[in-house]
C-alpha cells in the first residue's frame, strides 16, 4: 500500500510524526512524505523534523508563501505531477491548512482515495480560511478520522456517509505523550530566566486577530495590563511579526520589558513552556487541545472554536478579543480560580495505531 503523506505548515508536523512512525512498522505500507513548503523558515519547519524525529521529506514542492489562490494553486500544480508519477493507493492529509485542501482536491481529481486526519471539526465561521479548508476536504475525502464525537455529529449533519467516518481520537496527543519526557528536560526556562508558574505564555497568528488593527489593539491593551502582574512570553509567528511592523505596533512591545517577544520555538521547548506556564493565551487550534491534556488554563482569543470539547471537558475559556474579558479571566486564574480539565478517554496516544490498523483492514492496495 503506497501512501503519499502531505504536510505543509507547522501544525501538520506534530500530526504526521506518529503516523509516519506507525506506518514504518508495517512492511505492507510504503509511506512517502511530501512537504509542500507552505512553511519554510527553520523555526516554522525544519526544527520540528528534528524535535519530532520525522524522516526528511522524500519530495519537497517548495511552494512558499502567497495569496490563498496562489498558494493553493501552486500546491495543486506541483503535487499533481508527483501523484501522476507515484500512483499511490492513498493520499493522507492532516489538519486544515491550505496544503491540506490543495492536496485533497488534487488527489480526488485523479481518483486517488484521500484520508483526512482531524476531520469533522467546525468553527461555523466561514470567514476563517481554515474552515473553508475543513469543509472542502471533508466533503470529498474517503476516510474521515475524527478526534472527538462532535466531529462525527458535524459530518452526519453534512450528509457524510457514516461508513467513511472513524472516531480515532486526537493525533496531536500522540505526539504530546510520546515527547513529554524529552520536553520536560528542555532548559528553556533557565535560558529565558523564567520560573515555573511565574509567567503566562502567548501565541497569536490568526488573520482575524493580527491583520486587523482594532482586534490586535484590544488584545495588546489587555496584555499590557496583565504584564504588570506577571511576565508574558510571546513566541511570535512570522505573520504576526510582519503585522506588528506594518500596523506600527512595534513600540508597544519593545517598550514593555515584561512582554518577551521571541522567535517561534521548537516543539520540545514550546511544550516545556506550556506545561510550566501559569496560563496560556492563544488563538491556535492545537494549543487548546494540548493545554486541555496538560491541565493548564487556556484563554482562547477567538469568538469561536472548532474544538468545543476543550471547553466542555477541558481547561479552555473563550475570551474573544474583548479587553475586559481577557483581563477578568486572567485575574481569576491569578486568584486561584482555575478551570480544571477532565479526562478525554479517546485521547489516549494511540490514534496513529488506530488509523493505520483501519487502513490495513480496508480494500486499499488490494487490486
Ligand atoms: C497557516 C495555516 C493555519 C495554521 C498556521 C500555523 C492556512 C490558511 N493557515 O497560517 O491554519 O494555524 O499556519 O502556523 O493554511 N511566513 C514566513 N515564514 C514561514 C511561514 C510563513 O515568513 O515559514 C509568513 C508568510 O510570508 C506569510 C505569513 O507568514 O505572509 C502567513 O503564512 P501562511 O502559510 O499563509 O499562513 P499562516 O498564517 O502561517
How would you explain this protein's 3D organization?
The chain folds into two domains: 2-170 and 347-361, Rossmann fold (3-Layer(aba) Sandwich), CATH 3.40.50; 181-334, Rossmann fold (3-Layer(aba) Sandwich). It has 17 helices and 13 strands. The chain has helices at residues 10-23, 46-52, 68-86, 98-109, 129-140, 149-157, 171-184, 188-192, 207-210, 213-226, 238-246, 250-254, 267-275, 286-294, 309-312, 323-334, 351-361, and strands spanning 2-7, 30-35, 59-60, 90-94, 114-117, 143-146, 165-167, 200-202, 232-235, 259-262, 279-282, 298-300, 316-318. Helix 1 links the parallel strand 1 and strand 2 (30-35). The termini are close together. Bound molecules: uridine-diphosphate-N-acetylglucosamine (UD1). Uridine-diphosphate-N-acetylglucosamine binds at residues 9-11, 38-41, 44, 65, 96-98, 129-130, 205, 237-239.
Observed structural traits:
367 residues, globular, 2 domains, seven-stranded parallel beta sheet, Rossmann fold, alpha/beta, six-stranded parallel beta sheet, binds uridine-diphosphate-N-acetylglucosamine
Average pLDDT taken over every residue: 97
Biggest sheet, spatial arrangement of strands: 3-2-1-4-5-6-7
Shape: globular
Q: Gyration radius, to the nearest Å?
A: 20 Å
CATH superfamily of the largest domain: Glycogen Phosphorylase B
Proportion of helical residues: 40-55%
Low-confidence stretches: none
Please name the CATH architecture of the largest domain: 3-Layer(aba) Sandwich
Tell me the number of strands: 13
Q: Any idea of the CATH topology of the largest domain?
A: Rossmann fold
The level-1 CATH class of the largest domain: Alpha Beta
Amino acid at each position: 500500500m503506497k501512501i503519499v503523506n502531505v504536510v505543509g505548515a507547522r501544525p501538520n508536523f506534530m500530526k504526521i510524526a506518529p503516523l509516519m512512525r506507525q506506518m514504518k512498522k508495517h512492511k505492507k505500507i510504503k509511506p512517502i512524505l511530501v512537504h509542500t513548503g507552505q512553511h519554510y523558515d527553520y523555526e516554522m519547519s525544519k526544527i520540528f523534523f528534528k524535535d519530532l524525529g520525522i524522516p526528511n521529506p522524500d519530495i519537497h514542492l517548495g511552494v512558499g508563501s502567497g495569496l490563498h489562490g496562489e498558494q493553493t494553486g501552486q500546491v495543486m500544480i506541483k503535487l499533481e505531477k508527483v501523484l501522476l508519477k507515484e500512483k499511490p493507493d492513498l493520499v493522507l492529509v492532516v489538519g486544515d491548512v491550505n496544503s491540506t485542501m490543495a492536496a485533497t482536491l488534487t488527489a480526488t481529481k485523479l481518483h486517488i482515495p484521500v484520508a483526512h486526519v482531524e476531520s469533522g471539526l467546525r468553527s461555523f465561521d466561514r470567514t476563517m480560511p481554515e474552515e473553508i479548508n475543513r469543509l472542502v476536504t471533508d466533503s470529498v475525502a474517503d476516510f474521515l478520522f475524527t478526534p472527538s464525537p462532535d466531529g462525527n455529529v458535524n459530518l452526519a449533519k453534512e450528509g457524510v456517509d457514516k461508513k467513511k467516518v472513524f472516531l480515532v481520537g486526537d493525533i496531536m496527543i500522540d505526539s504530546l505523550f510520546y515527547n513529554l519526557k524529552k520536553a520536560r528536560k528542555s532548559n528553556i526556562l533557565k535560558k529565558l530566566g523564567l520560573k515555573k508558574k511565574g509567567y503566562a505564555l502567548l501565541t497569536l497568528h490568526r488573520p482575524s486577530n493580527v491583520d486587523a488593527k482594532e482586534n490586535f489593539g484590544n488584545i495588546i491593551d489587555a496584555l499590557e495590563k496583565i504584564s504588570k502582574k506577571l511576565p508574558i512570553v510571546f513566541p511570535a509567528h512570522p505573520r504576526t511579526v510582519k503585522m506588528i511592523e506594518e500596523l506600527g505596533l512595534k513600540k508597544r512591545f519593545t517598550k514593555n520589558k515584561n512582554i518577551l517577544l521571541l522567535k517561534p520555538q521548537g516543539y520540545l521547548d514550546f511544550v516545556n513552556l506550556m506545561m510550566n506556564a501559569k496560563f496560556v493565551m492563544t488563538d491556535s487550534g492545537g494549543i487548546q487541545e494540548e493545554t486541555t491534556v496538560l491541565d493548564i488554563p487556556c484563554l482562547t482569543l477567538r469568538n469561536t472554536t472548532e474544538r468545543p470539547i476543550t471547553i466542555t471537558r477541558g481547561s479552555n475559556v473563550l475570551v474573544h478579543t474583548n479587553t475586559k474579558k481577557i483581563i477578568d479571566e486572567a485575574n481569576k486564574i491569578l486568584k486561584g480560580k482555575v478551570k480544571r480539565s477532565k479526562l478525554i478517554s479517546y485521547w489516549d496516544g494511540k490514534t496513529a495505531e488506530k488509523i493505520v490498523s483501519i487502513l490495513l483492514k480496508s480494500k486499499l492496495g488490494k487490486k
